[in-house]
Design the sequence.
């Protein structure tokens, strides 16, 4: 049975064996589904939670791949293509179908729920046993690696609070059983970790007293009083005050009645809130986190409201608003847990789902109140019975009156806390009853806490909040968290004090420190944003609390200083004083923008800004005195932090920002025209329908500058902004607009250079779909051919194949482009060859050849390099083409170097690396790898690093350092996982492990991973051969035999020889001689190469070794000896001891042991010339090696 564990790291166990959940994103999907507790999680919710900043189409593909992988992990024995039973598809998303025993968190909650209150007579032992079992399930923090994610925070907080409650109840049970000495140390640590929890202090002091430490008990209570006073400004609650008085008077009741026998079986508990609000406390553990860090002020305010309600016997109202995920529910829970003993608490939530009964939230909280010993009167039956149907208006009035009277009666027994959540979903009946409370409960000790999403409030809900205004409610908009030191924040995130926070590299920490300016409050707020939404959000957005602080400080300044600061915020974090002063100048004095004509009215214009340059300088000095902005050097200003600047900027209306950006653009264009980035930014932000083309011109200049500086991410960001502006303001569809395709092309090329091949292809295909039928052919050709970055890597999904949108557009254009237009036709043929790479056969080769012919005729070196790159991609169409690949690469290298084309030179050298590696010429391959790394270091194109990085793992693999190789392959997978490669980094990793395990005789260990790769990439990618061999090696002959039709139907690309070897070996294992013969004949031209090394990424070793094994199986002993001799020579050349031993074992099988003597030195390997058809006989081996290997004594 599958068991899922989330009370610590997210893990899955199947019959005592840990299941492979792959990477963090797999575990995140599983965690998000588990939090739904069997309910369906819609696709859009999953994508919004886990892929917030990723395009939807890319995220959806990734999600489906992850779900497929998770299904295999959760149901390893499920036959292929049978419906999943655990992780099921349930419109509109996915759900987990599991029983309670399958998830540790669910078992934990069940045990806590079934554990009686320790005060229940006769049940302390049973309570202790159940709570001990419950707490033993915890291995760390709940959902440890995702605890700070916004989507996980509510559930993590809920589980952590329940853990705290269980720990306190356990200590209470131990005290009831007379085990005070056993819990003293734990309770002392608990009060240090959670100093604001009064119940912890009560238990600690009581345990000290019962162990004879009366003075220590009083000291603990005094410490609790001081902490509460200093942190919250409140006195201890009734329970602590009573305990202190009892200790001073040494009341006999403090000794307690010790239970010695367990009581009767425990019944299911109802929510008990009368004396101890529902929640929990954890025993202090290294991974414990402070609950709701930074929400102390809000909790303190709620605590004061509760105190006033109880002390004065009046209704106090607290209104807590905020955006989704700002912790309104968590704050409400914490407020209830912080109530003094003796309070009654109840909660209800307004449901989002349609069809809920009227006033459902009130029915829910009234039922909870009944479960706490406050049974509802009969008059409430229409409200509490969901099947009662429509209620007449007169009966509704009586029901609402009965409800308020029942709440008032409950409050007469004990102070009452009522929490009404999600008011933005409230129906009319809920709002009507809420509006009656100020009158009905005015003289009752009630704390009414209402939560809502501010932006989603209905008009009726807003009217209701207005009606509550006469109560003078405490209003809280959750915008920020408490300020703490940077180190403390990182310790909180890491869960301990001696390690850095997870997922924070040095660069991110440095940038966050710069962004926050070291302000402790800014640091904590930004750190929470980082953990909830990622580094991009933390580095670009302003946490709400930060904005409040900035507004407060800004409000202390004069209107003129405020306006100057807001205009400076439009300029940026770094401000050119001349540009700012020109923005502030009145019209006709250098300030051309229409809002700049500031009247000379005592220093302030009509918008509060300075009326002239002198006044601007004066208010600038005032702003400098505020500390919000500084003067780092002559002519420059700098905000105290980027967060201060962003807060000011976001608080300025869009209308005003647009106007000020226009002024800034004009000022920069006049004063600093070389600052293309600033000019593009201001033009984009101020663009109207008539300004789009001007803005895009400046974007083009800025993106070009960014590309030339190697910052392709910045170039892509600029082009995305330009496209967004056009989509918002353009008068024609993007691809139909004049120069519209140029903007898409700019984005596609920038994304490609940045390594996001998947995003680049998605943009290109989307534009092709939207291109109008009557569009300009030249524009279409520009769009089709824009995917022209030199590469040896696929620019499409490896498992998907050519896209008809691309090939169709190329065919249509070739029919219309004049024959004399060499450049356009060359690029189109090159695109076609690239699109058909690996599957296009003669059609792809013909397209590459035609592109090369046209390029040579044009005399353009750039075209020739482009065409040769396409030709390189076609040098994998048959086995043994490494020499041909080397010749094409040599010419491409020569042309690229002559034309100064760095990326093309890197690709040519990578191809040479591959050709040398294929022939075991590793010294030459190493030289090319080093040259590529030197080139790519200054290009900023991560895809160009792919093969050299993987080659760095291939080298220890060749030397038989397989553990080191596996580590390097894993590191490469993780490094390139951030690129948009359609998950190909996982496929390469799986193939590399296949090679290592095949050579180590451990293929049986590879079955699960092989199956995942096969099902992920499909038969078209050629995974059938490797999977069949893996199955056969693991003894699954029938399953392997089912793949026979796929053994020789594989893609002809850089892995062709490797997969041919796998097909041949699988055929040998399965006794399929015809297939083995076919593989043998196809592999013969590659007898002098290493299988797979031509990719530069992974290898199975000498092809000749496997030719020998196939020949030996087919009964061709002489041919086998020849091949084993070739393999031996290659092994010596590669300095690969395991290959040498493998070849020698083959020779010993075919010759007497006394007749064999290994060659003393490697000799050159004659490489067979490439031919269109397989050679009829084995490739030649030098006579000396053969004679020495089999010579008789």
Sequence:
């Amino acid at each position: 049975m599958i068991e899922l564990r989330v009370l610590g790291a997210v893990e899955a166990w199947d019959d005592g064996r840990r299941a492979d959940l792959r990477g963090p994103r797999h575990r995140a999907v599983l965690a998000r589904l588990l939090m739904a507790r069997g309910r369906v999680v819609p696709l859009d919710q999953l994508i919004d939670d886990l892929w917030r900043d990723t395009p939807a189409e890319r995220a959806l593909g990734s999600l489906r791949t992850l779900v497929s992988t998770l299904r295999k992990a959760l149901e390893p024995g499920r036959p292929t293509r049978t419906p999943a039973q655990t992780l099921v598809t349930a419109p509109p998303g996915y759900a987990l179908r599991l029983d309670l025993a399958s998830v540790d968190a669910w078992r934990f909650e069940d045990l806590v729920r079934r554990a009686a209150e320790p005060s229940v007579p006769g049940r302390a032992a049973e309570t202790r046993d159940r709570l001990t079992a419950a707490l033993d399930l915890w291995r760390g923090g709940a959902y440890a690696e995702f605890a700070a994610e916004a989507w996980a925070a509510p559930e993590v907080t809920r589980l952590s609070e329940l853990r705290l409650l269980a720990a306190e109840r356990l200590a209470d049970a131990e005290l009831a059983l007379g085990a005070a000495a056993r819990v003293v140390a734990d309770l002392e640590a608990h009060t240090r970790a959670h100093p604001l929890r009064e119940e912890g202090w009560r238990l600690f002091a009581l345990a000290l007293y019962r162990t004879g430490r009366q003075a220590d008990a009083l000291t603990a209570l005094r410490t609790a009083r001081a902490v509460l006073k200093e942190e919250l400004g409140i006195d201890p609650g009734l329970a602590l005050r009573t305990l202190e008085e009892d200790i001073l008077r040494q009341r006999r009741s403090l000794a307690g009645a010790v239970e010695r026998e367990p009581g009767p079986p425990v019944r299911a508990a109802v929510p008990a809130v009368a004396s101890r609000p529902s929640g929990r406390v954890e025993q202090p553990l290294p991974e414990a986190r402070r609950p709701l860090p930074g929400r102390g002020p809000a909790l303190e305010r709620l605590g004061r409201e509760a105190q006033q309600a109880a002390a004065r016997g009046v209704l106090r109202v607290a209104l807590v608003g905020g955006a989704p995920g700002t912790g309104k529910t968590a704050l409400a829970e914490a407020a209830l847990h912080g109530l003094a003993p003796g309070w009654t608490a109840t909660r209800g939530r307004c449901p989002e789902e349609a069809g809920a009964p009227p006033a459902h939230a009130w029915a829910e909280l009234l039922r909870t109140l009944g479960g706490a010993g406050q049974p509802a009167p009969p008059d409430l039956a229409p409200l509490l019975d969901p099947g009662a149907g429509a209620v007449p208006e007169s009966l509704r009035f009586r029901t609402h009156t009965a409800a308020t009277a029942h709440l008032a009666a409950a409050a007469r027994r004990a102070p009452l806390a009522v929490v009404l959540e999600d008011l933005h979903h409230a129906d009319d009946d809920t709002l009507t009853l809420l509006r009656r409370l100020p009158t009905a409960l005015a003289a009752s000790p009630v704390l009414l806490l209402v939560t809502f999403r501010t932006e989603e409030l209905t008009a009726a809900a807003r009217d209701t909040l207005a009606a509550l205004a006469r109560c003078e409610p405490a209003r809280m908009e959750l915008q920020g968290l408490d300020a703490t030191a940077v180190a403390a924040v990182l310790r909180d995130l890491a869960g301990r004090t001696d390690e850095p926070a997870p997922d924070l590299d040095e660069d991110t920490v440095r940038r966050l420190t710069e962004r926050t300016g070291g302000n402790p409050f800014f640091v904590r707020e930004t750190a929470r944003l980082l953990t909830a939404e990622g580094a991009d959000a933390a580095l670009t957005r302003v946490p709400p609390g930060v904005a409040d602080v900035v507004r407060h400080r800004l409000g202390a300044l004069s209107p003129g200083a405020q306006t100057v600061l807001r205009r400076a915020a439009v300029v940026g974090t770094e401000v050119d004083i001349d540009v700012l002063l020109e923005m502030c100048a009145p019209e006709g004095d250098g300030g051309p923008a229409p809002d700049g004509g500031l009247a000379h009215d005592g220093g302030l214009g009509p918008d509060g800004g300075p009326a002239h340059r002198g006044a601007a300088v004066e208010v600038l000095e005032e702003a400098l005195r505020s500390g919000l902005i500084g003067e780092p050097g002559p002519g420059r200003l700098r905000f105290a932090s980027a967060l201060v600047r962003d807060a000011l900027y976001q608080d300025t209306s869009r209308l005003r920002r647009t106007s000020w950006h226009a002024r800034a653009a004009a000022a920069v264009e006049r004063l600093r025209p070389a600052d293309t980035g600033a000019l593009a930014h201001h033009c984009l932000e101020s663009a109207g329908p008539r300004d789009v083309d001007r803005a895009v011109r400046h974007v083009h200049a800025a993106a070009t500058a960014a590309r030339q500086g190697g910052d392709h991410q910045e170039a892509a960001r600029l082009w995305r902004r330009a496209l967004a502006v056009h989509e918002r303001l353009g008068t024609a569809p993007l691809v139909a607009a004049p120069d519209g395709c140029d903007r898409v092309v700019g984005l596609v090329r920038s994304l490609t250079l940045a390594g996001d091949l998947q995003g680049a292809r998605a943009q290109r295909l989307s534009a092709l779909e939207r291109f109008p039928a009557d569009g300009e052919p030249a524009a279409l050709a520009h769009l089709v051919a824009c995917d022209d970055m030199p590469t040896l890597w696929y620019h499409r999904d490896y498992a998907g194949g050519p896209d008809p949108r691309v090939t169709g557009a190329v065919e249509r254009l070739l029919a219309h482009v004049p024959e004399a237009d060499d450049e356009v036709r060359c690029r189109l043929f090159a695109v076609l060859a690239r699109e058909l790479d690996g599957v296009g056969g003669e059609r792809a080769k013909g397209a590459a050849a035609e592109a090369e012919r046209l390029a040579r005729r044009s005399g353009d070196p750039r075209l020739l390099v482009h065409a040769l790159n396409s030709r390189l991609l076609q040098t994998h169409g048959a086995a043994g083409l490494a020499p041909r690949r080397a010749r094409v690469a040599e010419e491409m290298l020569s042309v690229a170097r002559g034309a100064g084309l760095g990326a093309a030179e890197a690709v040519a050298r990578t191809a040479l690396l591959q050709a040398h590696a294929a022939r075991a010429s590793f010294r030459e391959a190493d030289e090319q790898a080093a040259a590529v790394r030197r080139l790519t270091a200054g290009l900023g194109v991560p895809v160009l690093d792919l093969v050299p990085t993987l080659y760095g793992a291939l080298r220890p693999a060749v030397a038989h350092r397989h553990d080191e190789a596996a580590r390097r392959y894993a590191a490469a997978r993780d490094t390139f996982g951030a690129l948009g490669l359609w998950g190909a980094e996982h496929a390469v990793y799986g193939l590399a492990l296949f090679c290592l395990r095949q050579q180590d005789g451990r293929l049986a260990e590879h079955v699960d991973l092989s199956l995942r790769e096969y099902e992920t990439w499909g038969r078209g990618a050629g995974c059938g051969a490797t999977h069949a061999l893996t199955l056969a090696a693991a003894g699954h002959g029938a399953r392997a035999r089912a793949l026979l039709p796929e053994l020789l139907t594989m893609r002809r690309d850089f892995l062709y020889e490797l997969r041919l070897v796998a097909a041949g070996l699988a055929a040998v294992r399965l006794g399929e001689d015809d297939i083995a013969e076919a593989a043998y004949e196809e592999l013969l031209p590659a007898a002098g190469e290493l299988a797979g090394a031509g990719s530069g990424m992974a290898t199975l070793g000498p092809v000749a070794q496997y030719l020998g094994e196939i020949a030996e199986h087919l009964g061709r002993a002489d041919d086998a000896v020849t091949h084993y001799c070739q393999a031996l020579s290659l092994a010596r050349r590669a300095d690969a001891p395991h290959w040498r031993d493998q070849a020698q074992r083959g020779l010993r099988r075919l010759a007497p042991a006394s007749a064999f003597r290994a060659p003393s030195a490697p000799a050159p390997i004659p490489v067979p010339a490439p031919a269109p058809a397989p050679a009829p006989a084995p490739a030649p081996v030098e006579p000396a090696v053969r004679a020495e290997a089999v010579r008789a004594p």
